[in-house]
User: What shape does this take?
Amino acid sequence: MPAAAFAQTSQPIALRVTGEVPTHLELSIADIAAFQRQTLRVTDDKGTQVEYGGVAVAEILKKAGAPLGKELKGPNLAVGIVASAPDRYHVLFSLAEFDSNFSDRVIILADRRDGKPLDNREGPLRLIVPGDKRHARWVRGVDALEVIKGR
Assistant: This one.
């Protein structure tokens, strides 16, 4: 495993990025808000049109040094991301799902819904995966992204 180089922050940690990346990250809500923002209009699990605001997960993974773009080929196509929440809910994604060279879909780490911070049921952070027919991968309260290598 690569040497961990944790970013330091004085605010509470909202998201940790660990695993098979050169730079492990500990990000506060303020750190996440400093990334370029994206907004998605989607239908929630109750069938209501809503707007989520947040950061493309790919941008966070790039900051950690995940092999995106031209590096995402060969053995790196077996790299996955495990998104986790404190309630032990885990979801596995292929790294390619976050890369714009593989998909036009943008998966975001949302911190806002309809212009307001996420409530305690959803947040403070939630993965929004547009295009999924079920919302099972829309991880509520996500607090960790672990980069893993498959065989």
